[in-house]
Amino acid sequence: MALLYISALAVFTAVFAIKEGRKAYNSGALYIMDFWNWVELIIILQALAGVATFFYSEAVLEDVASKMKNGENSGLFGRFVNYRRAAVWDQVYTYVIATLLCSVTLKMTHLLRFNHRASLLIHTLKRSVGPLSGFSAMFFLYFFAFAILLHLTFGLRMLSYSSFARTFEAMVTIIAGDINYDEISSTTGNLGTFILFLFVFVFNICLIGFFVAIIDESYHSAKDDEQLEKTDYDLKGFFKYQLQKLKPKKKARKNDNDNSSSISGPGYDEFKVNVMKRLSTVFEDLDER
């Protein structure tokens, strides 16, 4: 079943690559100026890498299985089969597919611009980039400062704070709401309780409140923007517009066929001669004047 899915992905990627190649050929240098065209190219390369990695990992697995059947890896203590190489390539395949899904998700956010609410979300994020960058710097500054404080205070007495990696993990769980208050109070006493209260107050109340305020302000600013309703279209309106663009072409073709059929009648030559005579008389009158 996996082979069927990968084969379908390979066919779709090939067709999509041909389409993008034609688009790049027609657009010329303007093609590389668009960010989303680069996203399309990255998706194509990641899909091709995923297909190639899948077939190579399957070939490695078949090679290891054939060696096991032939008994090539048998030793003093019996038969030993090393699946490390196959496991490594299977992990690489997982990573490639994961990056492909990330790129496809990014493309989906671009396609959701036709939806008014999704477009409002995108405009909100764009407006909040500047304030959130400053907030992120302040957040990580406080986070690392508290990590050093908690590691120095609790590191010698509690296993969950014995290293910086474990301290970071414990701090994230506290921010998420999982607070081991009994262990901290019984181990470190009033000092640990005060530090824990200070950490929860700074992160769960102050910094999270700042984050929500930034998002809320950006949301209302994007919602009040009148240009948002003028520039963004919903998906239904987009398809309706594209269908309306196709209708005049069909009518024009039909009119051309009707005109050609009517013009090719027996009286067309006589009509043409009369028109030319009238035009010649008009030009003669103009010359006399």
UniProtKB/TrEMBL annotation:
Q: Name one Pfam family in it.
A: PKD_channel
Write down any Gene Ontology CC term: membrane
Looking at the record, the residues that make up the Polycystin cation channel PKD1/PKD2 domain are: 6-221
Q: How does it sit in the membrane?
A: Multi-pass membrane protein
Q: Which residues form a coiled coil?
A: none
Question: What's the source species for this entry?
Answer: Branchiostoma floridae (Florida lancelet)
Report keywords, A-Z: Membrane, Signal, Transmembrane, Transmembrane helix
Question: Carries keyword Transmembrane?
Answer: yes
Q: What is this protein called?
A: Polycystic kidney disease 2-like 2 protein
Q: Which residues cross the membrane?
A: 41-61, 92-112, 132-152, 193-215
Location relative to the cell: Membrane
Annotated GO MF terms: calcium channel activity; calcium ion binding
